[in-house]
Design brief:
- The mean pLDDT is 96.
- Helices cover 27% and strands 16% of the residues.
- The protein has 14 helices and 18 strands.
- It has two domains: 2-349, 3-Layer(aba) Sandwich (Alkaline Phosphatase, subunit A); 358-503, no CATH class.
- The strands form four sheets. Strands 5-4-6-1-7-10-2-11 form an eight-stranded mixed beta sheet, sandwiched between helices. It has a five-stranded mixed beta sheet with strand order 3-12-13-14-18. It has a three-stranded antiparallel beta sheet with strand order 15-17-16, with no helix packed on it.
- The chain has helices at 27-33, 49-58, 78-84, 132-138, 147-153, 163-178, 201-204, 228-258, 292-295, 323-330, 345-349, 404-408, 468-484, 489-494, and strands at residues 2-8, 37-43, 46-47, 88-93, 112-115, 184-190, 265-271, 276-277, 283-284, 299-302, 313-319, 358-362, 367-370, 374-378, 390-392, 411-413, 424-427, 451-454.
- With 505 residues, the protein is an alpha/beta fold.
- Helix 1 packs across helix 8 and helix 6 (163-178) packs parallel to helix 8.
Length: 505
């Protein structure tokens, strides 16, 4: 079996025609929709970027145990399992987080990998004494702290200099060399349309605005305070980037057409999470409640054995961690016992309702649960970090190592069900000066109010429901999922739950 797995970053399903968008030009996503099975209730698991990839690799969610971090020594990894069992795995990416402290164990799981430099704040070009005055004059003040990006942007002059065109060219080269071989997986991972929303002029010109100021293509992770013109500019820049990824994805479809890969190659398209573009008066992700613009993400799958299902849709609940057992299943490989997600292969044949709920979230913030109709944000009843711990053997975060002070407070915790008998370090979380948990980059969580929404009558999640009976039901679903994921004992107390005996760790 041959598998092409396309992972875009921060792709909002509301910007895709197959999910109802009429404002963003995405003809190739629609073209793929005609062949693929489109999943309508696909959700995130652990958030944001690298936590999502840990879910992807391992087939289980980890946000109750760990913030942003590498793959652990006890973690299963689907490309490594493929490699160990005779299936070649290759990664093509411009995702600079793989080469930071908190992501350095992921790309090494593949048989081979290629990296395109220069994306976002990638530490790419060495300018010891950059002309900061000149750089700041060219960029909106909200972007002035993004020094690496302002430097990198100077070296992106022509369309072929952008990362996405380079990535898809590498994918084309890989396919030309290997399409006649069997038993391989190509993971084509494009950081776009993640911010910065920097697209070539021919895509940007499709979305005119009245904005006349300096470069504004990277919203700050905060509440919306921009003028209407600035909001329109940021949204237009995002739309341009989505259209660019759509066009280059179309070149991949062209290769499938020209060499009839549709007869023997699976193609999967998804993202790690969505993105807020001013909805709910927020930009981006990480701090605010996990609204559907972040949590409810696209998934489209083509498999040659189910080509007769092209154009069909599935309503069953699925989430990020399901990709791992699905890929192993496609490749005819055994699914490890520690996997708590499920292969989606049966769903390619027909819809079902086997899963009654799923949970997702950020480490230290709410546990969010969805049953397909209702979405519920459940925040901790104990705000202080005294009932929150990180469990790891790899003490690094996004771009830093754990501090000596943090490590001095570490204790050894008995193994969890998924650590293969290995004890782990138990460490305090990252906190603010007042002792409250913060997002991995140090930003405080906000709007921490538990709320219930009916996605059928209120898909925009604008009007919380006052329904104690349904809230009690959703809380019970959270507990059941926590038990399934072997949540730490203290997590139950932190969220105001009585820990079932079977959840003892």
């Amino acid at each position: 079996m041959k598998i092409v797995f396309v992972l875009l970053d921060s792709l909002n399903r509301n910007a895709m025609a197959p999910y109802g968008s009429t404002l963003v030009h995405t003809p190739n996503f629609t073209r793929f929709q005609d062949r693929a099975i489109t999943f309508d209730n696909h959700y995130v698991g652990s958030l944001p970027c690298m936590p999502a990839r840990r879910d992807l690799h391992t087939g289980r969610s980890h946000f109750l145990h760990r913030s942003w971090g590498p793959l652990e020594p006890f973690d299963d990894s689907f490309p490594e399992l493929l490699k160990q069992n005779g299936v070649y795995s290759h990664l093509i990416t411009d995702h600079h987080h793989y080469f930071a402290d908190g992501g350095a164990t992921y790309h090494q799981r593949f048989s081979s990998w290629e990296l395109v430099r220069g994306q976002a704040i990638d530490r790419w070009k060495a300018e010891v004494d950059p002309n900061l005055d000149q750089l700041k004059a060219a960029h909106h003040p909200v972007q002035h702290h993004r020094t690496n990006y302002m430097i990198n942007r100077q070296y992106i002059k022509n369309e072929e200099d952008y990362c996405a065109p380079q990535l898809f060219k590498m994918a084309d080269d890989f396919l030309h060399k290997n399409y006649q071989a069997d038993s391989w997986l190509l993971q084509l991972e494009c950081f776009d349309p993640h911010e910065p929303f920097h697209a070539p002029p021919r895509f940007r010109d499709l979305y005119p605005t009245s904005y006349k100021g300096p470069i504004l293509d990277w919203p700050i992770y905060d509440r919306v305070t921009e003028t209407p013109e600035e909001v329109a500019e940021l949204r237009a820049n995002y739309a341009a980037l989505v259209t660019m990824t759509d066009e280059y994805f179309g070149q991949l479809l062209d290769f499938f057409d020209s060499y009839d890969l549709w007869s023997d190659t699976a193609l999967v398209l998804t993202t790690d999470h969505g993105f807020l573009l001013g909805e709910h008066d927020w930009w981006a992700k990480n701090r605010m409640p996990v609204y559907d613009e972040i949590a409810h993400i696209p998934l489209m799958i083509f498999h040659p054995d189910f080509s007769d299902q092209g154009g069909m849709r599935r309503s069953a609940l699925s989430q990020t961690a399901d990709i791992m057992p699905t890929i192993l299943d496609m490749a005819g490989q055994q699914i490890p016992k520690d996997v708590t997600s499920r292969s989606l292969m049966p769903l390619l044949a027909a819809d079902d309702d086997q899963r009654d709920s799923l949970i997702f979230g950020y480490f230290g913030a709410a546990i969010n649960v969805c049953d397909g109709r209702y979405s519920y944000f459940h925040y901790p009843v104990v705000d202080a970090a005294e009932h929150l711990f990180e469990y790891t053997l790899m003490p690094t975060r996004m771009t830093t190592r754990f501090s000596i002070t943090e490590l001095l407070d570490a204790t050894l915790h008995p193994s969890f069900s998924f650590t293969k008998g290995v004890s782990v370090l138990k460490l305090p979380p990252k906190t603010s000066d007042d002792g409250l948990p913060v997002e991995v980059q140090g930003m405080p969580f906000a709007d921490q109010q538990s709320q219930l929404f009916d996605l059928q009558t209120d898909p925009g999640q604008t009007t919380p429901l006052d329904n104690p009976q349904k809230i009690a039901q959703m809380r019970q679903l959270i507990i059941e999922n926590m038990v399934r994921l072997d949540a730490p004992a203290e997590a139950f107390n932190r969220f105001g739950f009585e820990m079932p005996k079977v959840a003892t760790t």
